[in-house]
Design goal:
The protein is α+β, with helices and mostly antiparallel strands. It has helices at 44-48, 52-65, 89-93, 123-135, 179-184, 194-199, 208-215, 221-231, 240-251, 253-263, and strands at residues 5-14, 23-28, 34-40, 73-76, 100-104, 110-111, 150-152, 157-159. It is built from 10 helices and 8 strands.
């Protein structure tokens, strides 16, 4: 696993909505391919305290391990003088100066509407997304801001925006974290799929696919991910707290699935 480093070609426009005031850009990858991306601009606090870029990358790589569709991505850095046409000086000064996260634009998708179940989404897709969000403690797929952060078309879906995850992984880093209490106190009441799951006919095998993926999760991916973070000086507090959490989750996968079933009962 190698994080793709991009070069800025052009800034197209500011994307409507989004707390990070994202920009639509064209960028060139290491193979000279030029594509359009959503560039997320995080302030210094989001990077130094919440490790926003690191979390975006970490969760996308973990999602792949659970066979969940996510966009291609890369990181980019450039002189902030190119932002002066879009933002005032004070806003730019507060931006982190390091590498920025870029999510490749997926054509032909729309934002998922929780009020209308998409015909493509299968029950097991809904189960897996809900379970994965519980695992990563994601407060931003529905949540208090009512943002689905899920793109859909007639054939597929894509998960986006994962900086508001793993709240225990932040600066200053807590020690002696009780992972069970952390998982137990996760509030899923506003998740976009909770109502669907509560109405769904239950079987003994609900969340079975998620449990298999969790049980088989290859923890060596953390070595590659954090080596890349070090290579590009992407803010993080080391891999141990994250790695220990997912070790705990693997060992307790049966209990986690039991709790997930309780949450949708």
């Amino acid at each position: 696993m190698n994080i793709k480093e991009l070069k800025l070609v052009a800034i197209r426009k500011e994307q409507i909505g989004g707390s990070t005031r994202p920009l639509i850009i064209d960028a060139e990858d290491e193979d000279s391919n030029i594509s359009s991306y959503v560039l997320k601009l995080y302030n210094k606090k989001s990077i130094t305290q919440n490790f926003a870029v690191a979390k975006e990358i970490l969760i996308l790589e973990l999602a792949k391990e659970f066979d969940l569709p996510v966009p291609d991505y890369g990181i980019i850095n450039f002189d902030h003088k190119y932002l002066t046409s879009y933002f005032d000086e004070k806003y730019i000064e507060n931006l982190d100066s390091g590498y920025k996260f870029c999510s490749k634009i997926v054509d032909g998708v729309v934002i998922f509407n929780p009020l209308v179940k998409n015909t493509y989404l299968q029950d097991y897709d809904i189960e897996n997304v809900f379970a994965f969000d519980n695992l990563i403690l994601n407060i931003d797929r529905g949540g208090y801001h009512n943002k689905p952060n899920l793109l859909v078309n007639d054939e597929d879906f894509v998960l986006i925006d994962h900086e508001l995850t793993l709240p225990f992984y932040s600066h200053p880093q807590s020690s002696n974290i009780n992972y069970w209490n952390t998982f137990m106190t996760y509030n899923c009441n506003n998740h976009i799929f909770l109502k669907f799951l509560k109405k769904m006919k239950k079987t003994e095998l609900i969340f079975d696919e998620f449990q298999i993926h969790l049980d088989n999760l290859n923890l060596t991916i953390f070595d590659d991910i954090f080596d890349n973070f070090d290579k590009f000086n992407i803010n993080n507090s080391g891999k141990n707290a994250c790695l220990d959490y997912f070790k705990w989750a693997k060992l307790n996968n049966v209990k986690i699935v039991r709790l997930l079933n309780n949450r949708i009962s």
